[in-house]
Design a protein that fits this description.
Two copies of one chain form a homodimer. Chain A is an alpha/beta fold and 333 residues long. Helix content of chain A is 36%, strand content 17%. At the A-B interface, helix 7, helix 8 and helix 9 of A face helix 7, helix 8 and helix 9 of B.
Chain lengths: 333, 333
């Protein structure tokens, strides 16, 4: 668990896109951030108060979260000066960078001297068990995609928000670094050792109230040959009661794999559901989410209507429309 | 690569079963062993010459392989004395034990002092790439099981032997610790980090002659919820041209999962083949292997005939019958 609230470190971000992690926290857990910290030349802005380290501590911030991708994969000397100061001011640090905080001797020394914690969320911090497949109480929903990066995390975060707004018990369960930083906990599934993947997902989604939903963040795709094993571990470890199919309609080939076309939503359904039923025979596909960001309003409406008609399932773009119809489908399950 | 030939260290094995790794080397790569080393009280016997360390070195042995499971998960002081002596005598050491050689300071010091190598085959020693899915030259065959531990490694080793005996080009590609120790190389797939699983299998089975077969050692099962992700990574990273279905007919539930029944061979075929065709559209299921060790001769014959009739595929027990009919099916592909 990463202690909240956060101060969002935007560093010298060259543009808003570089600050995707900060934007995710701002969008989905605004209550987790007391402000932002920007260095000279920073071009990103979360529309949060610009605070000094001292001001942020006074406002209650516990952890400085690196909300920006670093240039060239290294933590620059300019960043490091701020991070060392933050540790001295009493902040923990949290980061999803490839360049681990724990690999920087100055940060390790400052954390030690000040009794603070360095959270490298890319690296598993728990000795996960091997999955035992035992049925757990409570309910679980998982988005599976025709490809990677089609909006599965967004689907899960929107669903969690809308379920809670509808008075349902819901917890978003992060399985990737951005999700972990947004919510403060989770598993970095892509960094877990093969034998323990499904067990880490069981650990993440334990026994719960019968009417509680874990909204498990999806990863990869059963049809993406680089990462499909991660997806199957998520399906079998998560033992979902409900699957949502996620799609990006303008994708011409699998992400990073020019020779591979996308499966249809029908093929995704007919592949994922039988596999999910190995772990949970009661599993159902309850809806479709479509990322229509590359379509205009009328194209998007047409696309969603066509898929809904074809698949016979509630179909929505979580960003344009929210997920109310999926929430209703889950509540009715 | 582990240097051959080996001296097989049987330690103080309480029985033959404890020396499964040595037995595998003896059965499948007899040319890799110059002899065995047994301590007082050893109850295992590979029917190889009992050699001292000096005699074994004189006979050409390069590596002492720990061919036995250790008691209580630790390397005992008695073992350690022999291992330190072996390093001084010029042997490398190779081990698949949980208790890593590299975690024993005396062994590390002796290896360093003598310029020798410690091979812990449970631990990946290569920075594997992320899979790119590109089609590779040469051909590949993989066994997939209705469950774990149904004879997939045995199927692969027998197939490799029989293909080479038939004059075909074949290489057994080990994906587990026993297979690695038997053949001297491979990947410890269950210990690879999730994101790199499929990439490690691509690395293991690179471009080759058009008429060369990689016989890839199978792992887990698509239907075993603890390890299914490993199996799918193997299918997608291996991009097999041919699948073999492997089964153990007396199994009443999935290994280690009392609540889970086994799939039928038909369901295994209909699940594995479409997934394999994502990576290799030309993939075919070419046969079935059945581990009939718990059946008597007539039961085994009946079982094999029934499956062959039902599935319409050449069906054999590799141990009782060899794999000649599968070799013929591969040659005809």
């Amino acid at each position: 668990m990463i202690e909240t609230p956060y101060l969002l470190f935007l560093g010298d971000a060259p543009d808003g896109l570089a600050a995707k992690v900060a934007q995710g926290i701002r969008d989905w857990r605004p209550e987790n951030s007391v402000g932002q910290f920007r260095m000279d030349g920073c071009k990103a802005d979360m529309k949060l108060p610009d605070l000094t380290l001292t001001e942020a501590r006074e406002a209650g911030a516990r952890t400085l979260v690196i909300g920006v991708a670093n240039r060239g994969g290294v933590i620059s000397p300019a960043w490091k000066r701020v991070l060392v100061e933050a540790l001295a001011a009493g902040f923990d640090l949290a980061s999803g960078l490839h360049n681990l905080l724990r690999d920087e001797p100055e940060l390790v020394a400052a954390a030690h001297a000040n009794g603070r914690t360095l959270h490298d969320v890319r690296v598993p911090s728990v000795a996960y068990p091997i999955a035992n497949g035992e049925k757990r109480r409570g309910r679980r929903v998982l988005a599976v995609g025709t490809d990677c990066s089609v909006g599965k995390m967004y689907t899960g975060l929107a669903l969690d928000r809308d379920m809670r707004a509808a008075g349902m018990k819901s917890t978003f369960r992060a399985t990737g670094q951005t999700g972990i930083l947004i919510t403060g906990s989770g598993i970095p599934l892509d960094a877990v050792v093969a034998d323990f993947m499904a067990g880490s997902v069981e650990w993440l989604t334990p026994d719960n109230d019968e009417d509680h939903w874990d909204v498990i963040e999806g990863q990869g795709s059963l049809f993406h040959v680089s990462f499909s094993g991660v997806t199957l571990a998520l399906i079998h470890g998560g033992q979902p009661d409900a699957l949502i199919l996620s799609h990006e309609p303008t994708r011409t080939h699998m992400r990073g794999l020019p020779g591979y076309g996308l499966p249809t939503l029908e093929v995704l359904r007919d592949t994922a559901l039988p596999l999910a039923r190995v772990a949970n025979p009661a599993c159902e596909v309850i809806g479709v989410t479509v990322n229509t960001q590359h379509l205009n309003d009328s194209e998007a409406a047409e696309c969603l209507a066509e898929i809904e008609e074809r698949m016979g399932l509630p179909t929505c773009d979580p960003f344009r429309q929210g997920t109310a119809r999926l929430v209703a489908a889950l509540a009715a399950l």
